[in-house]
Amino acid sequence: MDIAGYIASIFIGITLGLIGGGGSILTVPVLVYMFSINAVLATAYSLFIVGTTSAVGSFSYFKKGLVNIKTAIVFGIPSIAAVFLTRTFVVVAIPNDIFSIGNFIVTKSIFLLLLFAVLMLFTSYSMIKKDGQKGDAVFRKRPFNYLQIILQGLFIGLITGLIGAGGGFLIIPALVNFLKLPMKTAVGTSLVIISINSLTGFLFSLPQISIQWELLLSIAAIAIIGILIGSYLSIKINTKKLKPAFGWFVLIMGVYIIIKETLLN
């Protein structure tokens, strides 16, 4: 399954490069089902892979001036705080056996995977639904609402810390709909926020985990190659048509995880 896992890893990067979010939602399932990594450890690995990949992907947006630094900082500070609290206290506090229904025991790993699957369903909906955007000109003047950004940052940090997802599918709509950033600026800013959140979350996880660095670095390197390919292709491909198709794929994956962890476990 390693070869299939590496192929899936490059697909994660390509998706991030093409549409700026959503690709990271595949990282944990790839680690769990293709590399046979425990779900709890997979969330930590995912933070490193998503963080490094997003950091590399954000460089081209920096060069083009498509990153809103102020938003990234105000959004990032509460996100990092939430990631720290979640990785240090919440994830550690979840018991290995949470509850049982008859002979079926909901373990910590199953709980995290089911939570991840639910997030995948929400992600798929946000990608499948029609985008009402009519152009960057619509998204101009909007007061900088600090409280709104801080609350969004805390929520994204909680999600990132708990299940290792970058949260791009939540960040981009927030930046576009609430702050009225142009789409390309929202994507660039999102990648910066994701990289900061994910890499700090990984650092906070290090005291509790044992890392297979060779495996982790190889997966991250391939995902980085993928995001470079995706960033290049984004110039030549209409990403609006790709987004709904990828959304349906994520939906199928989410349903598969729920069935596998409950009915086939």
Provide structural commentary:
The protein is mainly α and about 260 residues long. The protein has one domain. Helix content is about 75%, strand content about 5%. The protein contains 10 helices and 2 strands, in the order ααααββαααααα. The chain has helices spanning about 1-20, 25-35, 40-65, 70-95, 110-130, 145-165, 170-175, 185-205, 215-235, 240-260; strands at about 95-100, 105. The protein has a two-stranded antiparallel sheet with strand order 1-2. α2 (about 25-35) packs antiparallel against α3 and α5 (about 110-130) runs antiparallel to α10. The longest helix is centred in the first third of the chain and has 25 residues, at about 40-65. The chain is globular, with a radius of gyration of 18 Å. The model is unreliable at about 135-140 (pLDDT under 50).
Percent of residues in helical segments? over 70%
Instruction: Trace the largest sheet across and list its strands.
Output: 1-2
Task: Report the principal-axis shape.
Answer: globular
Radius of gyration: 18 Å
Would you list the SSEs in sequence order as H and E? HHHHEEHHHHHH
- What's the end-to-end separation, in Å? 19 Å
For the biggest sheet, the summary is: 2 strands, antiparallel
